[in-house]
Amino acid sequence: MAATGRARPRARLVGVGAYVPDRVLTNADLEKMVDTSDEWIVSRTGIRERHIAADDQATTDLAAAAVRDLLQRTGTDPGDIDLLIVATTTPDYVFPPCAPLVATMTGMDCPAAFDTNAVCSGFMYGIAQATGMVESGIARRAVVVGAETLSRIIDWDDRATCVLFADGAGAVLIEADEGQPGTGVIGVELGSDGAGRSDLCVPAGGSRAPITGDTPHTDTCIHMNGREVFRFATRILVESSQRLLGEAGMTIDDVDLLVAHQANERILHHASERMGIAPDKVAMNLDRVGNTSSASIPLALADALDSGQLQEGAMVLMVGFGAGLTWGSVLVRWEPRS
Predict the structure, then answer these.
(1) Could you tell me if 242 and 154 lie in one domain?
(2) CA distance to 71, 142, 185, 229, 243, per residue, from 12 (Å)
(3) What is the pLDDT of residues 91-123, one digit of tens each?
(4) Do residues 223 and 171 share a domain?
(5) Which value, in Å, is the radius of gyration of the alpha carbons in the chain?
(6) Do 166 and 225 fall into the same domain?
(7) Does some domain include residue 287?
(8) CA 120, CA 236: separation in Å to the nearest integer?
(9) pLDDT of the residue at 1
(10) Which domain holds residue 196?
(11) Domain co-membership, 66 together with 202
């Protein structure tokens, strides 16, 4: 892949694909594992079931399945993809990254391929990176994947987190297009605040705290300060959206569909009420898939498409937020390939 100095195109979102593992873990199953109940989980999170990867499935397997679904839905030859970005916080290995492996697994012809990690905001950062590379002329056709096997970093004795997180993958196709202004990816807003790093983290496993024989298992799992994360999420979802809409000269009334990170039903309800967007314009599927981190937005987008909630020409506002702390919003017109 190389820049050629050609005229700068627009980045157009033309397709979406998804995959969740076959195994379903219900709230009733969790009642047998920890001190919890279906009523407690549903009332606090909105989640009723989630999907868990098989023992022989890794993040690249989920990502590759989502990419294959995307290529099939859009009728795209894998050899035509010249950029692949995988957003994940649960890679197969420390290195190599997932993206080159997924490219080979799906038959792509040596595209530029790399991973990005902004946790639950990762898919938004991946969209921003792909948009910049397409609009600069470096890439012509890019696939962005959000994929996670969070079940591998869950403390299954911690009822505060084990009821939330799950596995899955979603992917989108972004193409260069000579469309008019107001089409394709219209705007992006990204940000971070490292002061909240301890509110949502995995304490051990990196260079600051390598895993040793003395490392407690719980330190290799997700730790979350639920109260602080809720406060951050409900605030930043609204603020990031408003900043992006303001820059685009739009209001929430111009948005046909809000696709936010599927973290918690109460967060989504609280934020959407503050934003003044009607419930039927809010995509929500976490009751069936749980919190899949970087995979949640493309999974919700695919679900909205399959259910008829996402229509051609719709103005879509996607918002991610999570560990880092990080956030990101993308405003895009949905223009599927005919």
Answers:
(1) no
(2) 16, 10, 6, 33, 22
(3) 999 999 999 999 999 999 999 999 999 999 999
(4) no
(5) 19
(6) no
(7) yes
(8) 13
(9) 52
(10) 185-333
(11) no
What is the share, in percent, of the chain residues with pLDDT greater than 70?
96
Encode pLDDT of 294-333 as tens digits.
Answer: 999 999 999 999 999 999 999 999 999 999 999 999 999 9
Q: Is residue 146 part of a domain?
A: yes
| Location of structure tokens 């987008």 | 301
Q: What is the pLDDT of residues 47-61, one digit of tens each?
A: 999 999 999 999 999
Question: Quick one: average pLDDT of 225-233?
Answer: 97
Distance (Å, rounded) from C-alpha 303 to C-alpha 17? 9
Identify whether 42 is part of a domain: yes
What pLDDT, in 10s, does the model give residues 238-291?
999 999 999 999 999 999 999 999 999 999 999 999 999 999 999 999 999 999
CA atoms of 32 and 157, how far apart (whole Å): 11
User: What is the DSSP code string of 131-196?
Assistant: HHHHHTTS-SEEEEEEEEEGGGG--TT-HHHHTTB-EEEEEEEEEEE---TTSSEEEEEEEE-GGG
Angle (CA) 67-140-130 rounded to 5° is: 65
Place of tokens 């639920």: 226
Number of compact structural domains in the chain:
2
Per-residue model confidence as pLDDT tens digits over 164-180: 999 999 999 999 988 66
Query: String of b and e for 115-129 (b: at least 16 CB within 10 Å)?
Result: bbbbbbbbbbbbbbb
**Tokens 């991946």 map to which residue?**
126
The confidence score (pLDDT) of residue 182 equals 67
Spatial CA neighbour of 321 closest among 93, 29, 125 = 125
- C-alpha 325 chain-centroid distance: 15
How far is it, in rounded angstroms, from Cα 295 to Cα 282? 17
Residue 321 inside a domain? The answer is yes
Least Cα distance to 226 among 167, 162, 178 occurs for 162
> What pLDDT is attached to residue 4?
46
Catalytic residues: 120, 261, 291
Last residue in a domain, options 177, 211, 231? 177
The CATH number given to whatever domain includes residue 286 is 3.40.47.10
Q: Looking at the structure, do residues 222 and 144 belong to the same domain, yes or no? A: no
In the block, tokens 């002061």 appear at 195
* Strand-strand pairing, 23-26 and 257-260: unpaired
